[in-house]
């Protein structure tokens, strides 16, 4: 079972991986960060197969996993565009979606995501304790990002 320090290290690796992908997509890193991504994938797989009995740690791990899954989808689409030779489209996707991803993780996940789903008229379901509704500022951040992305 992962402890607080191991989850902190995983979160740090994920933040570094995002920065490395940002640099790769902007052209300042020559190669995709596959080694670090492999490390993150391995840790997520290991921790996913362990029973996390502490609800706080389980919640933190779930938040890290949901952020990682969202980022992976974005990265895969951008890499697909790059591999097809459409680097300009890949860069545009990255630039267009980065503010949306930042807004959807402006606070503890899935609070902003569920607020965004509600704004878009999609079912998101209720938040479970100990989570609480997004603040007015968080809702406005998500609303602006969704509008800028053309979702609203």
Textual characterization of the structure:
This protein has a domain at 1-84. It is built from 6 helices and no strands. It has helices at residues 4-26, 34-48, 55-83, 87-104, 111-119, 136-148. It is flat, with a radius of gyration of 17 Å.
Which helices and strands, and how do they pair?
Layout: H1 4-26, H2 34-48, H3 55-83, H4 87-104, H5 111-119, H6 136-148
Helix pairs in contact: 1-2, 1-3, 3-4, 4-6, 5-6
What are the main properties of this structure?
152 residues, mainly alpha, 0% strand
Short recap of the structure:
This protein is an all-alpha fold and 152 residues long.
Rg, Å, rounded: 17 Å
Assembly type of the chains comes to: single chain
Return residue spans where pLDDT drops below 50 for at least 5 consecutive residues: none
Largest sheet: none
Number of continuous helical runs: 6
Question: How many strands in all?
Answer: 0
Morphology call: flat
What is the arithmetic mean of pLDDT? Answer: 88
Helix content: over 70%
Distance between the termini: 41 Å
Could you state the order of secondary-structure elements as H and E? HHHHHH
Q: Which class of secondary structure composition applies to the elements?
A: mainly alpha
Instruction: Determine the strand fraction and express it as a percent band.
Output: under 5%
